[in-house]
Amino acid sequence: MLLAVSAASAVWAQAAQDGFPRTFVNADGSTTTIPAQPKRILSTSVTISGTLLAIDAPLIASALTYEGQFFSQWAEIGEQRKVAKAWPAGSVDLESAYLYEPDLIVVAWNGGDSARDQIAEFQQIAPTIVLDYTSQSWQSLALKLGEATGLEAQAQQKIDQFEQFVAQSKTQLQIPAGEANIVAYFGAGSTNMIALEDGVHAELLSSLGFKMEVQNRAWHDNTVPLADFLRVHFEMLPQLKAETTFLLEVGGHSASRFMQDPILVNLPAVKNQQVYELGRNSFRIDMYSATEIVNDIVAIFGKADNAG
Fold it and tell me: What is the value of pTM for the model shown?
């Protein structure tokens, strides 16, 4: 018995030396005690998993998209690190959660991959933290995850490296005159989406030197909470004024289809032939997809003297 007590004391002494135990404030206002630095993390959110990988957290398993896949921007890295594929979004498998033997479980408070209804069950398995990725940039999310995992230094390092990459990329760009906007285009009869000028997508473009069009919040369909995007009726799109439009590739609609829509022919961006696809992984912004977006923009708007 004394040996067991001594061993437990040694574990807690090492944890304290590493900054653990620590208390994490969750997105729902609750708190979670994390007794020791996590070594086996289960992410129930495919969106959050990308940022866990970015800061080199010990991710052992991740939930998937509705189609049962990792996000393609980091799928290869997930395979290289032998991250197990847990369950498709919306189909939580508590039995497999036990089998992974996690020492930390990560849950998204909002979003299509949220498993918030199972938080109580997850808490029976391991310490469980709750984050809201819909309300913050990947950088902010990385810092929160760094706080929970004891990887604050790695998180800050990745953020600093990315910001240097963006700054270097900006010097290579010839930004078109006027303003820009970002649209998730689904066409007539559907709810379309317009990125707010202060959302994470717009912030990324702003950091590269684009001036973002200020959006009219009154257009938003208030049946859903307002986050980074206005959800608008198609009839609102002809009122956009920016000279350049970027399309999120969430519905498989190309720039050519947007420009050929007869209702949109008078948009300044269409008249200018300045409608561009933001990339197939552009809907969810993490370090990997943001890097892809920046590289694509450099390819489109790079100065002539940078060619070759």
Answer: 0.89
For the domain that residue 252 is a member of, what is the CATH number?
A: 3.40.50.1980
Look at residue 81 and tell me if it is in a domain: yes
Q: Which domain holds residue 72?
A: 10-152
Rounded Cα distance, 82 and 135, in Å:
29
What type of residue sits at position 249?
E
User: Both 44 and 134 in a single domain?
Assistant: yes
CA distance 229 to 231: 6
Q: 63-104, pLDDT tens digit by residue?
A: 999 999 999 999 999 999 999 999 999 999 999 999 999 999
